[in-house]
Fold these 3 entries.
Entry 1:
Amino acid sequence: MHTVIFTEQNRLSLLQSGKEYFPALIEAIDAAQTEIYLETYIFSLDEVGTAIRDALKCAASRGVSVYVITDWLGTLHIPGKMLENDLMSAGIEHHCFNPWFRHGIARTHRKLCVVDEKVAFVGGINIISDYRYDYADNREMIAPRLDFAVRVQGPLVAYVHRAMQLQWMRTGKRRLISWIRHLRQGRAKLGRVSGKSGVAGFVVRDNLRNRRTIQRSYQRALGTSRHSVYIANPYFAPALKFCRALAHAVDRGVEVSILIGVGEFWMQDAVAKSFYRRLLKKGVKLYEYRKTQLHAKVAVIDDDWATIGSSNVDGISLFINHEANVVVHDTAFAKDLRTYIEAALAESVEIRLDDFATRPWYQLWFYDVAFFIYRGLMRIMTLGDYT
């Protein structure tokens, strides 16, 4: 079984959007003395990316070893190559994840940083301005993107550091002995929660030994939920087992509220809407966040269990991409995150089952068609693993 190793006495700081995350990240980079690992899906050279790039270059000039991984698709080929040349000219090592899809369709969607093996950052925030759409560079939003990260200090940092070292090895030139060592080290193990403060675990999803770790972490928490579930996610297209876990929670009397991002991709919106009627009939409460771009991938269950990371609740994140989340068992932290989610829910539009009675038949038909296309593609791309 692939679950989570939990460690205690971690210092966890919730960071809301780039306004809190980027200054904290740059502060840690500026204080680095020996080593920095940074991994991101998007590294845009706007005002935010330029500031972080310059901080990394400054660190390298002080003799700090700096390792940067960017995704070929997320950062794009030409901007990514320009960034690579710039970084390498400053003495920074750079790896591009899966260029030209040479190793299949998987992407690294993780957003991680570890500095001096003392502080780690895990979350869903790409290196891009809060006001810029990550899929349309020339468009700006009227309100900052809603997203989260967590700064970690304590024993959990060692697990994030090891995962980043393994990713660095995976994306470089590999020998057989390195792969064997990677396979042995890359598997999550069973851990227990003691109930002490600052209890947190680091969860990764890859296509080797941790194929379903994040989904199983969600399902275990949903399966033991007692009174409340809050999920905020921009790309909502769960597989059957996840939907069943939500329905079973409602059957036990748990109040389940899901905040979904809309307005980015019309096809993605149609896929998400194809789940609405089934979940609403089960008693799940659904809300659409339309104020700005919702990019947060967070959840709080029973004010005890919380997760923050890069993984969406969809087939691509849970079954294909490389993802990384932190799972927290800490009441104060969970309540703090729930407060943010509730504030976002108050700004959102609740979707009701009655809303579908007035929608034209062809619109409902389109939702169903989008679902069947999506499910078919996921089953093909995951070789039938999407369940």
Entry 2:
Amino acid sequence: AIVGAIDSPVKKDSSAGTEIWTYNFAETLLKNGHQVTLFASKGSVFSGELVEVAAPSDVLDTAGMISKRKFVRFSINQMIEVLKCQDQFDLIHLSVYSLQYALPFVKLFNKPIIITMHQSFSDDKDTKLIFEKFYEPTYVFISNNQANLKYLPKNYRIIHNGINIDDFNFQKSSNQDSLFWMSRISPEKGAQDAVKIAQKSDQKIILAGPIRQPEYFETLIKPFINEDIQYLGTLDLTQKIKNYKKAKRFLMSIHWEEPFGFVMVESMACGTPVLAYDRGSVREVITDGKTGFICPPDDINCMVDYVNKIYEMPEEEYQKMRKNCRKHVEENFTVEKMVDGYEKIYQKVMGDWE
């Protein structure tokens, strides 16, 4: 059993990274010969058995934002549904962002539990207590940086995320000189820095992603939208790939310790170098100077310098960097490589359980 998100559908062209991860992961397991049941929201798409436990609209308030009260209730209902039919499964794999509502149920399962850690944990005594209380599962961290904690669970592994690289067509050279930034529109993702970088480097930029904090968007992003600073809204998979491919460089101007960052891998798979602040897993994903450039956190001037550096590169050198990007993803961040790591964990926990 794989337990996925309930606030948005698990499908190939989801706007959320966790949902895309879950879709690719479940489909690859199925292709590898496993029997898989996915518990997720209505509107999810899956080739195996799908149990729809809630509609995204079930957890939204009247303003269209997630209602915490409703989200908690339906998250608990989801775990109850899994619990009721747990004897059908050899193991339970949790792939949910809001782990706090699912963790109490691990005490009720009589099956091995695997948890992919899509979220960040504070390195404090509360985290220590959580891992001590819920020691039964095998926790999988998605980067070394994420697992760089003083307090770690009893059983854990580190496996980098992977993408379905066949979905992302490589383009040896960009056909536009614009910057590209894509994520959810909220302060920690740093859209406001991306706007400033574009302005200071006198370059066009395309922004994309769902608006999660309307006030932030209305105050710090919308006033600057014009012919050179465009906001495209939420993109489907085809639109994403189109913008990755045509961009000269991708900006990763994050303001938080992002555990992984799918957009970096997706961009590089299409051949587009990434300019990023040195936060979270950035140094594990980007090879500085080879597949992009890394700047100190919040150093807008450094980002501007590297924007200009890439723009001034001879075409042959730039094409080499784009090829490096694609090769780097092929060697390190494919869904096949990721699933192989999880299958080894599955085999071990099943062996230990028996």
Entry 3:
Amino acid sequence: VTLFTDVLVRAQNAKEIADTVDPAAVANALTVMRNGLMVAGRSGQSAESIDQTISLIEALLQPT
């Protein structure tokens, strides 16, 4: 979680993600999503579906 938080703060400072993003909250959510993606990969979910999920996560972090 700390690594995600640090990266999100740096991205916010560089205007790569929206100023409205709460780095700590998003870091927790990303940790949960990462764990879910790992389970999805192990359970045979398609790479296309996993890539689509990652694209959605990236879109949610884009600056407005």
